[in-house]
Amino acid sequence: MVIGAKGSPLQLVLSAILHIDNPTGNISLDETLRISKNPMIKEAIPVSYGDNYRGYRILGTTGKYVRKYGATLKEGKLNTKNFEAIFGAEVAKKLNLNIGSLFVSSHGLLQNEIEAHDEKPFVVSGILAPTGTVVDHLIITNLESIWEVHEHKDEHSEHEKHKEEHKEITALLLNFRNPIGALQLSRSINKNTSLQAALPKFEIERLLNFLGIGFQAINGIAIAILLVAGLSIFISLIKTVRERKHELALLRTYGATTFQLLKLVFLEALFLSLMGFVFGWFLGRVSILFFSNLASDTYKYHLEISVPDMQEFFILIIVIFMTILASISASYSLFKLNISKILADV
Predict the structure, then answer these.
(1) pLDDT band at residue 138, thresholds of 50, 70 and 90?
(2) 83, 120 in Cβ contact below 8 A?
(3) CA distances from 92 to 29, 73, 194, 273 (A)
(4) Which residues lie below 8 Å from residue 114, measured CB to CB, with a gap of 6+?
(5) Residues 305-327: what's their mean pLDDT?
(6) Are 85 and 37 in contact (CB under 8 A)?
(7) Among the ranges 69-83, 108-122, 217-231, which has the highest mean pLDDT value?
(8) Are 91 and 137 in contact (CB under 8 A)?
(9) What is the mean pLDDT of residues 59-82?
(10) Computed from CA positions of residues 178, 182, 185, 188, in that sequence, does the dihedral angle turn out positive or negative?
(11) Residue 152, Cα to own-chain centre: how many angstroms?
């Protein structure tokens, strides 16, 4: 469960979990600490964000966050001091910074060099190994660094003395001992406090329901393309049989059986189908790579290029089955092949 400021629960989930939206606001650290002491809560991870470095978000959190995603160090060490930061694998790859490099954060979540915190630079202490999760696209430091970088130089000593009472975070990530605890506590927080609780599973499912019509339309188009492809194979085979009837008639005179002619037609159709499948698979992967580059530039996410899976194998089976049907239908005329008439017309 995610706890944050009042607003859109979907926005809270997208910003605090997937880091592809703006936060709904800040919340009191003291209030969230009181909630985290609830016996139904197994683990609580505070997160604070709002700055970036060259478009990549800087996340203030505890060591639990990195462990939660199973991230391990590729080189360097974890951040143990203020203004030490560890880079996700994709961040380190794109920014090409090394251990010990200094960088300056900028206010906001978009690349902005105008409001840079030049007086308080960060140092790269470690680089994480690839995880395939959102951690790959984050710059992670501790909460104290995020708080300190936003402190003003003209703060009065009285405020400095009591500053711990006014600390804020952006969201609190909670892991429960059982699902019932999540449902009960979410209702209580939304009803009795100024905070907002959102369950990522429910919000993502609601988002997918909103986009369901689009997904169904895309699937419908894909099925229509598959049927048109099967029809095109059928038409191509009929055209092939008609254009090569003289060659087929000559083969019959040389002793070829009808079954052998059928096999020739089927092998040609199978070759066309398999070539089309391989070309389509390759074109699909190229398209994924193209959209991955767009997503990486816009959302700092990328799509993985995977090997053929079981669904694609199932599609291949369907393609072969349609090829067999098209071959049989198109080769029907071979059983009525008038060899003498065809050779006489030559």
Answers:
(1) very high
(2) yes
(3) 30, 12, 38, 43
(4) 106
(5) 82
(6) no
(7) 69-83
(8) yes
(9) 92
(10) negative
(11) 38
Question: Whose CA is closest to 301, among 57, 37, 3, 52?
Answer: 57
Which tokens is 139 given?
Answer: 């710059």
Residue partners of 229: CB distance under 8 A and separation at least 6: 276, 319, 322
At residue 277, what is the residue type?
Answer: F
| Distance separating the N- and C-terminal Cα atoms of the chain | 79
Cα 72 to Cα 283: distance, rounded to the nearest angstrom: 35
- For residue range 153-207, list pLDDT tens digits in order: 444 444 444 445 578 999 999 999 888 888 889 899 999 888 999 999 999 888 8
Cα–Cα distances (Å) from 80 to 62, 64, 105, 127, in that order, read 10, 13, 19, 14
Between 273 and 143, where is the model more confident? Answer: 143
Cα separation, 93 vs 271, whole angstroms:
42
- Give bridge partners of residue 70 from the DSSP assignment: none
**Cα distances (Å, whole numbers) of residue 131 to 44, 74, 142, 246, 249:** 22, 11, 20, 61, 62
Q: How do strand 106-107 and strand 168-169 relate by DSSP bridges?
A: unpaired
Three-state SS at 120? coil
